[in-house]
Design a protein that fits this description.
Elements (H helix, E strand, L loop, with lengths): L2 E6 L5 E5 L9 H8 L12 E3 L37
């Protein structure tokens, strides 16, 4: 099964899970259940969004802290030579 990275806006964590391509997770509770982790203090209904990772360029394992990368500034580009996520 393919793996996907999901980001929770409430706690800023990125979690990698495997599931069928036809599935999509929409909240923290479902994501934690799929990943087999404790939800902690984050509400189960907190929304999560699947990241466009381009072949798992971004994964929870490679982020070290399990935190999402900082957002790009509104002006200019955050991609370093076209390699977004590899900064």
């Amino acid at each position: 099964m393919p793996t996907y990275d999901y980001r929770c806006e409430t706690n800023d964590r990125v979690i990698e899970v495997s599931h069928r391509m036809s599935e999509s997770l929409t909240n923290w509770g479902d994501l934690c259940a799929r990943a087999g982790i404790d939800a902690g203090d984050t509400p189960a209904d907190a929304p999560v969004h699947r990241l466009a990772t381009g072949g798992n360029v971004i994964s929870s394992h490679s982020l070290g802290s399990g935190r999402a990368p900082a957002a790009c500034p509104s002006a200019g580009s955050c991609c370093n030579g076209g390699f977004c996520g590899l900064d």
